[in-house]
Amino acid sequence: MKSKYLKKLLTxxxxxxxxxxxxxxxxxxxxxxxxxxxxxxxxxxxxxLHITDIHExxxxxxxxxDKTVAITCSLETVNVIKESIERAKPDLVVFGGxxxxxxxxxxxxxxxxxxxxxxxKPLRDKNIxxxxxxxxxxxxxxxxxxxxxxxxxMRYDNFIGTFNAEEMHGCGNQNIVINGSKSNKPAFNIxxxxxxxxxxxxxxxxxxxxxxLHKDQLDWYERTAEKLKEENGGExxxxxxxxxxxxxxxxxxxxxxxxxxxxxxKRGDDYYIINKDYLISGDMKETPCVPANKDRTQFDLxxxxxxxxxxxxxxxxxxxxxxxxxxxxxxxxxxxxxxTYGTNHGSRLIVLDENNPKEFETEDIVIERITDVNLD
Length: 376
Fold this sequence. Notes:
376 residues, eight-stranded mixed beta sheet, alpha/beta, single chain
């Protein structure tokens, strides 16, 4: 349950004065013993709600004396979470990263805790199990490490999560099994991976673009996938995966075209459209923001181990497509939050079937605005 940065976090926090003025958080015990166990329902179904790019901030942090827009954005965002739950009736909720807009300079420990309390309250009120992955913006202000946020989430009895399954890059890397409806034997698996934030050069300087999973994370995935396979009688345990930043193979489903092509979307100096041979449903309003180094290893390992049937991503707020690339579904869920860009706001329902574990149903959930305040 270690993170490469946990020791640094704890050292920096204990260096602060222990006073309310310092904004020190309360340390909470891990809920590992209390965390709910997942199980298929009697009808063989299991419902998962993917809510990503919440990007919540506290309106009090807004410098504008008239906080109407900031308050309304928060109101609309929390309503998306509430209404998504009402419509999906999930057995599990997964927050898909950029749960906070961690680039706000006004963030304090108190604001982080308060914001996490706000976005999790609809789940806690109904005692719905939930888990998270982190996005590139969650800990952009480095004193609010992912590990501190994980401590906040771990307060709640309905949260399923840990710093890491073992020491590696990122925070929250773990897998969760869903037991069969009539047994305590794992029937399905969920991977939760931290796709990190931004790459850095050998001197530690941040470089442009987005990061990817590091070798120690992929090594852990391989070991765990093989262990699950062995425990499953030598067959790969069917799995889905959640992480924030999509894999490079989404571009395998795109065609590079001329700028004058109808529906072309720009990325850098290039333009793309979807190759209809790969498209199952949805559309693309921005080209996928994949790792800067175009690393392809993670997807190739899914193919090697044969367990991952689908991967769900956030990050690209306005995309909601489903691609089939080499038999693996690559799925984007559009953003939930109103504090950032995006037109449609909502979530995605995923329905697993114990009796047909290599297939699943999924659909967008679009939540309409409840206010008439101009948020543009």
